[in-house]
Design goal:
It is a single chain. By secondary structure, the chain is of the alpha+beta class. It has one domain: Hotdog Thioesterase (Thiol Ester Dehydrase, Chain A). Helices cover 16% and strands 40% of the residues. A six-stranded antiparallel sheet has the order 1-2-4-5-6-3, covered by helices on one side. 30% of the residues are buried. The C terminus is likely disordered.
Length: 140
């Protein structure tokens, strides 16, 4: 059973990421790529892998202060091998908060294929921001 991100993230919902761990500076997400997430080599598109990494890093940062939001300041990604996923299986993303200040988080994440092989890794810097609450109806 997957966990809740605590907020609605339409793009993450669209991709089908599930949150499996979200505590103590660590996160884990699963992603079962569909055919529309593949590239011309029939492997997970690099943009989808980078999005998974961005969310893995961000949730690791948020896991220590779940009522705060984060925005990506920078991210460096390295691809080691194609992210191949047989039908019915998923990629696993694991993130860790390496260091934080009052307003910044420094994170690291890795993506593994269905065989547990490392496909990509990233480091990222995030800024903690107060969550915006949905505005009520206009009173014009």
């Amino acid at each position: 059973m997957s966990l809740s991100f605590g907020v609605a993230i339409p793009f993450v919902d669209h991709l089908g990421f599930t949150l499996e761990k979200f505590e103590g500076g660590e996160s884990e997400l699963h992603f079962a790529p569909r055919p529309e997430h593949l590239n011309s080599f029939d492997v997970t598109h690099g943009g989808a892998v980078m999005t998974l990494l961005d969310v893995v890093l961000a949730t690791a940062a948020r896991s220590v202060e779940q009522d705060m939001g984060v925005v990506t300041i920078e991210m460096k990604t390295t691809f080691m091998r194609p992210a191949k996923v047989p039908s019915g299986q998923h990629l696993v993303g694991k993130g860790q908060l390496q260091h934080r200040t009052r307003s910044m988080a420094f994170t690291e994440g890795r993506i593994y294929d269905a065989d547990g092989q490392l496909c990509a890794m990233a480091t990222g810097t995030f800024k903690y921001v107060a969550r915006r609450h949905a505005a009520g109806p206009s009173t014009d």
